[in-house]
Task: structure prediction
Amino acid sequence: MQKYFTRMGDGSGIYLDAETIRHDLEEGTADAASRGKIPELTEEERDYLYEIVVSPVNVTSIIRGKETVTSSDSGAFKINYQADISMDRATAIQVHEKVLSADSLDLGNIDYSYKSVKAILHDEAKVMENVQLNTIMPVLYGAMPNLGLYTKPDGPVDNWSELLPLGKIDEARAAQEEAIEYAVKDMVYVAAGMYRAGADGINFDTCGASGDADVMAALLAIEIIKKKYPSLGIEMGMAGEFILGMHGKLDYKGTRVAGLYPHRQVELAEKAGVSIFGPAINTNSNKSFPWNLARAVTFVKACSEASGIPVHANVGMGVGATPMSPVPPVDAVSRAAKSLIEIGKADGL
Result:
């Protein structure tokens, strides 16, 4: 029986027969449909995914005419810490533009959080200004809401992760609500400084890493920023496919934030004024690449169909069907990209 080379969710190589691959594709899309209460992929779409998975080529690509654009989070220093090439952020951005043909890029600080950037905004703004003088492509400034940084001992509020196990539910919720206020002020402050420095947009990355309050803070900040600077682009990338209910009772414009999957997350993002939405579908390292691929495409397809703004699916280490490994294998990454664009209908990656 013929077997085809593919991957596991941790990046390790594995050979699977046709029956197993088709079974995993069916199970993957069924899992996403069950969790998100969204339609499964059609038989025709699963057949096409199967062809993509078993293709004998190492690196695959999209059909001519289906080309799309890319955006990036923390791309300015990925050459430095991932490729281990000594290069400052401003130079790395020029390499991405002039050598790697990036469509847009994200300038950020190595301590990738708005709270940390607030104290050094004057330095970061100067870097942004210099980058804008030497590039043509859009450059966004990016960081994470990272609500956890506002907890003691480093921040001003009590740590809800410590309060919740003690049964202090009300106190934990109050701490998160207080942290939201601090975070919103910091994010608006940084965005204002970057707007004056010439940034083309602001990237709110890994929203939801601290749960629903983290997402709420980002939405409220985005709403304020868009009112102050209507022409400033806003990209919002999520931390995962499901918003954890660390608070549980936060509502944004009549919708409870906790428990939302991508096709509902994008609705709130659009209401807040987001320009580009980035759904993040978690990779299960114990499952096969075909299983993860079908699952990611199912979620992204539903998100794309529900969205009135461009959707840039997150395709990186551990998300978007990409294996959870420090350097994701290009065979899996290229297949994920092709599938999310052609079947998931993503507007970009």
Observations:
- The first strand starts at residue 3 and ends at 7.
